[in-house]
Specification:
4 helices, mainly alpha, single chain, flat, 0% strand
């Protein structure tokens, strides 16, 4: 006889910085989709967000984790000209 219920445990990640509210965890889905597809446009569609929102999330999280403006500009250039270097965020 099967049990009368099913238990599904999931980890909840919360990232906060002093004075900031929780960051949008959609980025984790976006990064997973980038790894799968290799393209930000495809990944944004898979994460159910716009391409613009995907870039905004990347910018926001980069600032949160302390990436310099120079590093973010390099990442943006690399993503536009070749495969995106998002593995560093995983």
């Amino acid at each position: 006889m099967p049990p009368p219920f099913h238990v599904d445990l999931r980890t909840v990640w919360r990232f906060r910085n002093a004075g900031q509210s929780d960051l949008d965890l959609t980025l984790l889905d976006l990064l997973d989709a980038i790894e799968q597809s290799g393209k930000l446009t495809v990944a944004a569609r898979a994460a159910l967000i716009s391409h613009r929102h995907a870039w905004n999330l990347i910018e926001k999280w980069s600032e949160f984790f302390g990436a310099s403006r120079h590093d973010r500009a390099r990442a943006r250039h690399a993503a536009q000209s070749a495969a995106p270097p998002w593995d560093d965020l995983l």
